[in-house]
Design a protein that fits this description.
Blueprint lengths: L3 H14 L6 H11 L4 E4 L13 H15 L3 E5 L1 H10 L7 E3 L2 H9 L4 H8 L1
Parallel strand pairs: 1-2, 2-3
Helix pairs in contact: 2-3
Pathway: Carbohydrate degradation; glycolysis; pyruvate from D-glyceraldehyde 3-phosphate: step 2/5
Family: Belongs to the phosphoglycerate kinase family.
Catalytic activity: (2R)-3-phosphoglycerate + ATP = (2R)-3-phospho-glyceroyl phosphate + ADP
């Protein structure tokens, strides 16, 4: 993993080019779009949430998903970084399902055969 100073420099370059990528306007837009869903699959945080300076987007989405989960929306968190993000915010227990198998989960949704699932089917 990158050290904090290196990652911060990389993120600063991205933020200069896409200043509002995960700023207040984007967070509001994502939140509004999520309001109409019944199932949400979140795979990948909204930036480098490990650094407080870049965590606002990820934290806002995690809070929104927790709120929606409380309203009966199915919220599925996939991938180690996404799991770490909802745990950092203290909302992991509010989600419907959490899996560190983000890439594998996406492949399963694509219809690909996963070796572990195939073994279970053959058992």
């Amino acid at each position: 993993m990158f050290s904090a100073p290196v990652m911060a420099v990389v993120m600063l370059k991205v933020l200069v080019v896409n200043y509002d990528e995960y700023g207040p306007d984007s967070i509001k837009s994502f939140g509004e779009a999520l309001e109409t869903t019944k199932t949400i699959i979140w795979n990948g945080p909204m930036g480098v949430f490990e650094f407080d300076k870049f965590a606002a987007g990820t934290e806002a989405i995690a809070k929104k998903l927790a709120e929606l989960s409380g309203k009966g929306v199915t919220t599925i968190i996939g991938g180690g970084d996404s799991v770490a993000a909802v745990e950092k915010v203290g909302l992991a227990d509010k989600m419907s399902h959490i899996s560190t198998g983000g890439g594998a989960s996406l492949e399963l949704l694509e219809g690909k055969t996963l070796p572990g699932v195939l073994a279970l089917n053959d058992a």
